[in-house]
Amino acid sequence: MKMLINVPETVVADALRGMAAAHPELTVDVDNRVIVRRDAPVAGKVALVSGGGSGHEPLHGGFVGPGMLSAACPGEVFTSPVPDQMLRAAAAVDSGAGVLFIVKNYTGDVLNFDMAAELAEDEGIQIAKVLVNDDVAVTDSLYTAGRRGTGATLFVEKIAGAAAEEGQPLERVEAVARQINESSRSFGVALSAVTTPAKGSPTFDLPPGELELGIGIHGEPGRERRAMMTSREIADFAVHAVLEDLQPRNPVLVLVNGMGATPLLELYGFNAEVQRVLGERGVAVARTLVGNYVTSLDMAGASVTLCQVDEEVLRLWDAPVRTPGLRWGV
Amino acid sequence: MKMLINVPETVVADALRGMAAAHPELTVDVDNRVIVRRDAPVAGKVALVSGGGSGHEPLHGGFVGPGMLSAACPGEVFTSPVPDQMLRAAAAVDSGAGVLFIVKNYTGDVLNFDMAAELAEDEGIQIAKVLVNDDVAVTDSLYTAGRRGTGATLFVEKIAGAAAEEGQPLERVEAVARQINESSRSFGVALSAVTTPAKGSPTFDLPPGELELGIGIHGEPGRERRAMMTSREIADFAVHAVLEDLQPRNPVLVLVNGMGATPLLELYGFNAEVQRVLGERGVAVARTLVGNYVTSLDMAGASVTLCQVDEEVLRLWDAPVRTPGLRWGV
């Protein structure tokens, strides 16, 4: 598999240098692998820190900025960052109002953020944590005990980020983040396998003419393989899987998320089918976002995330955000 | 090749239905294939209309909105829209201040926009046209006499769009658009071929271990094939090709554009190398944009576009824009 890289060993460092050049509004510490909004710490404001393996861009580094994350820690590709990165990030952004760690539910991330929380508290930084585990496809998988964290991470980071930006205290920001995770569910499909720079060949074998339903964002196995399905059939399957678990009574935010290599033209067409299913099931749609936000390198496919919202959450969703990957209202 | 579609015949219509659902701020006429900003026509404002084959999203439909295009006409995949679409778009957005057609230099687009201009003028709409032909890789190619129009289209649409938004008259907006095209050059590389829905298999054969230098955005041939190169080597080749032709004396805008299937992680790493070459050549960088903006469906690869700017152009670049694909300052 051909890649636009130098050598696998420098992929993350090279990308951080490229981010630094493109985004003077961020402080990118290439050596220590921490991306921080330039004006941090913001006096009186709760800070949000997230992170995880690289390869899911723009998540998380592309979501650093006013109205969303205060800092992000990128690990190696598909590998958790280390506690020292998280501690450094927390120290850089804490204004004294405390720090919320947003942690996708993968074993490495959970352990390392736990350790970083202890270290940070030893240094007098108040830490709260929220675990994102929205993927209904499987319980327990290759890297996870329980459900995986996927597309809902964007909703948690945006909405809790808005609450923090308007000055809500740590316990409220944490409660909002927890509420968003509990109100969100995701389901993804893969049309092709993912290739990591280190391995250089696809991480699993997906034969021509088949797709994998319920895939994660690291190429870990899903629920089942089937003969290739149409956009219409995939939307039926994915949205039903989400609705069965979520059973929303309120309007929903919709994220139709590309895994990386699926053209935007196809994602918009898939969105039309997702909206059709939601309409048939009587689910009202408050807002829709279509694009590549929580990706898996060069994997083809898509995921659907729904988050049921009340008026207060919708207000926070609509609040201004200014990051490389998500931007509106400012 | 697996795709997230229903049938090839409905790919464009399906995508337009999905755009309509995701973007209530746009008026999407699915039957007639015209995407219009909802508040058009804007009294006293020059309107900008572009369009071209589908498969390059977010170009052009994703660039409709305040500060950029007034309307866009998507054709079938890699196929020019028809004059009737362009006429309909012009009629929908003309406030009496005239309409600028922004035309990428492909034979079909040029002929059809010419015909639409005649039809529109017959209906009393004042039309100006600007041709975008920034690709230095080849003169004449599969679909083009002269140079192809690629990444500079984004610069023309954004900067002329800002001039129109602040009320500049048609002759000024046209002059700005022409200046931006003349100040811009691009060069692209492909690491994989592109597969159209209608064909279902790659449009050309690119062996493992080779890349194509100077590729267009439809899989048309480039300058040459070589054994796979590193990000550093590709940046040297592409930036030198652009600089040789442009010889900028002013600072430049940089667009590091993904062709569709290359991960954002790799695009940022490639940007680091592009910035290195520019630094070595003493070219000052005013702004940098990294992402998938002028794509070629599922092709892997990237292009570099440089546009030399003066203070006035930079002011227009920084002016507010609110479209699905490009958004800042509002």
UniProtKB/TrEMBL annotation, chains A, B:
Record's keyword terms, sorted: Glycerol metabolism, Kinase, Transferase
GO BP annotation list: glycerol catabolic process
Keyword Transferase: yes
Catalytic reaction list: dihydroxyacetone + phosphoenolpyruvate = dihydroxyacetone phosphate + pyruvate
EC number, as in UniProt: 2.7.1.121
Domain DhaK: 7-328
The keyword Transferase is assigned to this record: yes
Molecular function via GO: glycerone kinase activity; phosphoenolpyruvate-glycerone phosphotransferase activity
Principal EC category: transferase
Biological or metabolic pathway of the protein: Polyol metabolism; glycerol degradation
GO CC, one annotated term: cytosol
InterPro entries hit by this protein: DhaK_1, DhaK_dom, Dihydroxyacetone_Kinase
Subunit structure: Homodimer. The dihydroxyacetone kinase complex is composed of a homodimer of DhaM, a homodimer of DhaK and the subunit DhaL.
Protein name per Swiss-Prot or TrEMBL: phosphoenolpyruvate--glycerone phosphotransferase
Organism: Streptomyces cadmiisoli
Biological classification of the source: Bacteria, Bacillati, Actinomycetota, Actinomycetes, Kitasatosporales
Gene name per UniProt: dhaK
